[in-house]
Amino acid sequence: MSTEHIRELAWGLEASGQAFLWVIRPDLVQRDSTALPEGYLARIRARGFLVGWAPQLKVLRHPSVGGFLTHNGWNSTIESISMGVPMIGWPYWSEQFLNCRFSKDVWKVGLDLESTADENGLVKADEIEKAVRSLMESADGKELRKNAAKLKEAAHKAVMPGGSSSRNVDMFVEHMGNLCQQNQ
Question: Could you name the domain of life of the organism this protein comes from (predicted)?
Answer without folding.
Answer: Eukaryota
